[in-house]
Amino acid sequence: MRKLLLVAAPLLWFAAGCTPPTSTGTGPSTTSTPADEAAAAGYLRVGAGNLAKLTSGNTKIMFVGTKPGGKHDGGFKNVSGELQLQAPTPRARERLAKIGGITMEIETDSLWADDPKLTTHLKSADFFDVNKYPKATFKSSKIELVGDKDNIEELKVTGELEFHGVKKTITIPVLVNANRGLWISTTFELSRKEFGMTYGEGKVDDKVTVSAELGKKPA
Fold first, then answer.
1. Which of 33, 83, 110, 145 is in the most buried spot, having the most CB atoms within 10 Å?
2. Contact call for residues 185 and 168 (beta carbons, < 8 A)
């Protein structure tokens, strides 16, 4: 839907795992930074303050809308935000999730769909009304560790989603895979009616499946 939505020595291993190796070749030099190269390759790079920046290069936001007898895929091309990471605690009973917070902003005019005419219609006032609501945002307020096995965490992330002029608190399931880097994924449903999007009732289903992928999925 538009813009939808996650400290130091202990995280050095994490930063190394999330960043692709630097080239040691003798080719022509470039002005790209390690962060640029990481984002272009789809990686999440841990930087100052244990923050990983979300970019269009390392973050995918997608959705599936359905109707009687069919469905359409879509998503957003322009995404930005930050992940706040936290260091592991020394005692297992104090175990914290690797993610301490997330903020995300989506430019709704970057919406795409699997049909050009549908893309235009979805951007109109009937649906996303991108001229009136150019951004959607998500900011987490609570992150709970539900499960942790084989370096894969199950989280419950609660936060405020502002979309189509409506603010709502939502809770979504999130998987964090820290094997050979960092990959974060989620899939959940949203009611478009709850965000004031009522066009096509009876012809277009209310529930929309939203998914997000942050970082590079382990091979």
1. 83
2. no
DSSP H helices in the chain:
12-18, 34-40, 116-123
Q: Rounded to an integer, what distance in angstroms lies between the CA atom of residue 13 and that of residue 16?
A: 5
**H or E stretch including 167?**
strand 166-177
How many domains, the chain? 1
State the residue range of the domain holding 211.
9-19+34-215
Q: Is there a domain that residue 25 lies in?
A: no
Among 48, 8, 14, which Cα is nearest to 182's?
14
Instruction: Report the 10 Å Cβ neighbour count for 14.
Output: 20
Domain at 190, CATH number: 2.40.128.110
Task: Give the residue from 190, 200, 124 showing the smallest Cα distance to 163.
Answer: 190
Amino acid at 62: M
pTM, full prediction: 0.78
How confident is the model over 52-81, as pLDDT tens digits?
A: 999 999 999 999 999 998 999 999 999 999
